[in-house]
Amino acid sequence: MTTKCKVLVVGGGPGGYVAAIRAGQLGLDTIIVEADRCGGTCLIRGCIPSKALIHAAGRFEALNSHARKPRMGISLAAAPTLDVAELIAWKEGVVDRLNQGVEGLLKRAKVRIVGGWASFSDAKTCTVETGEGEQTIRAEHVILATGSVATELPGLPFGGPVISSTEALSPTRLPARLVIVGAGYIGLELGIAYRKLGCEVSFVEALPRILPLFDRELTRPVEQWLKRHGVAVHLATRAKRLTETDDGHALEITDAEGARQRLPADQVLVTVGRRANRDGWGLENMAVDLDGPFVRVDDQCRTSMKNVWAIGDLIGEPMLAHKATFQGEMVAEIIAGHRRRFDPRAIPAVCFTEPEVVGVGLTPDEAKAQGIDTVVGRFPFAANGRALAMEAGGEGGFVRATARRDNHLLLGVHAVGAHISELAGELSLALEMGARLEDLFGTIHAHPTLGETLPEAALSALGHAIHIAN
Ligand code: FAD
């Protein structure tokens, strides 16, 4: 049986499901095919479960710290205990609720959901193995949103003690010793959570620094947290192979000088990046051009094949949920006849590490590399009342605003500190709206909030911050 539709979306992640909902809202006859549960990597095994785990780990650590040493007059007679099965059940509850919400929204938008793996025979036709048998779907427009999968290391294939972020988000019990290969944001977020839950954690990173997408000034507070909490970080070091030992396993590592070392490990979490999910669904039958490992698109997410669109992780960096979501909504509107285009100038990036790191736009070094003369202002959380009242002032956190020297146009804002992920929206809005430093301090910010650091950073760039000596 062949089903026809106007719009076929393949992949129910934050790119695909949003594209489908918007297409449905716009009255386009839409089908979405998803092999797993709607929500994709982000909702089922990425952003949401990791943030739930990070939150629970933070709570556990805070209770532990009060048990170790009374503070603010709060003490605990005994250290808290952890029931891993209960923790994972709670996290799954959060995921389930959102998954059901997404499916409900799709149905309300009159989108037909087909469960199964889509395989394309040509650019507009796919077959899906569903629970009720094979279904063929032909569409006028196809939106490819198949996302990405974790990258494996040749010497450390996933399986047994070698796990990906997916398994790390659903442990049955916690490893006493966890070695993480790759100190990007996924590895660091999970590693810090595992450390807070009581595991011994160490990192092996091939580059000479952690979080390479952020500059050293921003990553220093994270490095200090790792040091203070006994997390070893082996930089410029490569993981080679895992061998068995009497009491578990050992990961063989080699540093830049060729010196070898064996790190005892109960589990090895490999977080060395993600690759576009291009294989096993007939992309080669669609006559779509590639751009290296990704599907090539223009600034409206059109592929080289007429009426075939691609969005999200499948088309490249930054591999972030909010980028996929924006593109999904945009493509549905373009199909419906609206004028839209994708301008990646103000995509925020957040690391939910300890402390958190957030950035949008150019760093001072990036601006310099483009030959732009800048002014840069910084404001420390240690001088912000709300940060101190929330114990968030002592970690070396700060906000940094980078603007053009000639007209004070904001080029980038970056911050590191506890809870600053919630500032990401304001930072992006400022850049998206073409704010100048004067707009930042010309906006009255509520007191006492962490957001007050932003106008102060702008004032500091002009040499007259109020609450610090310039
Ligand atoms: P995906 O979410 O990967 O969805 C693709 C979907 O397509 C999947 O559900 C898959 O089952 C389905 N699919 C693929 N092929 C087929 C087929 N042939 N037939 C049927 N279905 C198919 N991003 C952030 O912005 N913030 C974060 O805090 C964050 N944290 C993360 C934490 C972790 C541990 C991980 C792994 C990722 C995280 N990300 C985060 C990245 C984010 O999850 C991705 O950028 C985002 O999910 C990409 O969305 P997408 O729609 O392109 O694809």
Q: Summarize this, please?
A:
The protein is of the alpha/beta class and 470 residues long. It contains 13 helices and 24 strands.
Verbal overview:
The protein has helices at 16-25, 40-45, 47-68, 84-108, 165-168, 185-196, 216-228, 321-335, 364-369, 385-389, 424-432, 437-441, 453-461; strands at 2-10, 30-34, 112-115, 117-122, 125-130, 133-144, 148-150, 162-163, 177-181, 200-204, 232-234, 237-245, 248-255, 260-265, 267-270, 274-276, 290-291, 294-295, 308-310, 349-351, 356-361, 374-380, 398-404, 410-417. It is an alpha/beta fold and 470 residues long. It folds into three domains: 2-53 and 84-150 and 275-335, FAD/NAD(P)-binding domain (3-Layer(bba) Sandwich), CATH 3.50.50.60; 162-272, FAD/NAD(P)-binding domain; 349-461, 2-Layer Sandwich (Enolase-like, domain 1), CATH 3.30.390. Strands 1, 2, 3, 4, 5, 6 and 19 form a seven-stranded mixed beta sheet that branches. A five-stranded parallel beta sheet has the order 8-15-9-10-11. A five-stranded antiparallel beta sheet has the order 20-21-24-23-22, with helices on both faces. Helix 1 packs parallel to helix 8 and helix 3 runs antiparallel to helix 4. The longest helix is centred in the N-terminal third of the chain and has 25 residues, at 84-108. The termini are far apart. It binds flavin-adenine dinucleotide. The site of flavin-adenine dinucleotide has 35 residues, from strand 2, helix 2, helix 3, strand 4 and helix 8.
